[in-house]
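Q: What would this chain look like folded?
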Amino acid sequence: MNAITSSLGKARSFINKSGFPYRSAPTPYGVEPAPVKKNTGSDFNTDWARKYPARLTRAMLIEGFMRPAMKFLADPHISGVDRLSGIDGPVIFAANHHSHADTPLLLSTIPDPWRHHLVVGAAADYFFSTRVGGTISSLVMSAVPIERTKVGRRSAEMVRDLIDEGWSLIIFPEGGRSPDGWGQPFRGGAAYLAIRCGVPVVPIHIYGTGKILRKGKSLPRPSSTKITFGDPLMPDEGQNAKRFAEKLETAVAALADEASTDWWQARRRAYSKTSPDLTGPDAGGWRRIWALGKNDRRSQRKRWPDF
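A: My prediction, written as structure tokens:
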């Protein structure tokens, strides 16, 4: 009887200490603990965000709120949409990245049939660091977690499965927003995914969103923007991700030149491989800021082809 009472006392003490059954029971001594299943970062599950109720909610948000808001804040001027006419099926849209306004601007300006069948590659460590943030990002932007530095196998397989299901992807190859208004070197994530998935990549240049909501700012202010779509690109046979990323960056740089001057001048420089770099001059901070302001002033002037 005493042995039974003692055992019951030990069991009661164990329950009080562990919180069982309101939380999982601890692993007994001598047994290897099971791996902890994460619900944040690259392990965040976004399958629910592509079900019909979430898709309907997102379509209402995009058409009823996001597009009017971007029309007011960004006043977007869109060019190059005709370059998408030959595409049939899902693609990867790869754009430069200056502001949090880039994503809603693209979600509201990318034309049908892709607009309501898009997923956005978002930084797993930023947008999916918490369950609440990940849930909002998935619902509003149809975001999926992607590693910034190097796309892992889990993310690559997830994107490939989504593209096989007919979804298109928006990704920012710079890996983060510009700190000073100039671009940053493209990383190989978008190129790697394009090679892995076997779909064309549409380069996009976005101009003006840094004035709406620059990195470090919390309140937006209206400013005009330009979105320029480029010709779809496919990696050459045997081309690695690094080389294709360089090709993609060159294409976006040519679109930036087109947005700030005119189509004819930009084509000539692209053909001669003299398009200005997205990353700006290799100089001190004040010199880069001055050069950026000079480019902004130049983009406001009407230019005609130099025959």
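The chain has a mean pLDDT of 81.
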